[in-house]
Here is the input.
Amino acid sequence: MAFNISERIAMELAKLSPDIPIYREQQRGGFQEPSFFVNKITSHINPNLFGIQFRDNHFEVIYFPNIDKPNEDMDLMEEQLSDNFKQLEDFATVSDIDFERSDSTLIMTFRVSFRAVPVDKGTKQQAIDYQGGLKHD
Here is the structure.
């Protein structure tokens, strides 16, 4: 199972705001404003039968608003994210969304939960030899 949840989050953010840069790593010169920073906070894996896992991943997206009108920009972005950031396309839903403001940034925390099923690479039954019929009274 190879996938990158952070990349899927970035793809959804890019759909909502295609002109805003999205970062995954700290920037030496600081972040361009406006921009997003995607950060994974915690993961929890709950094993189940047959190798299936229930996974909870907690993320935060930090929005650095336009410096000319930061409060207005954060209000608009919070509404846009509240209305549209609900699903990672063809993957999982986004839940438990919370917004907080700190140091002139908008911080959105949320959870992405899904069930991971291992890929069975074993040989499948190719054919079946059947000898039988109907029972007659």
The chain has a mean pLDDT of 88. The two ends are 54 Å apart (CA to CA).
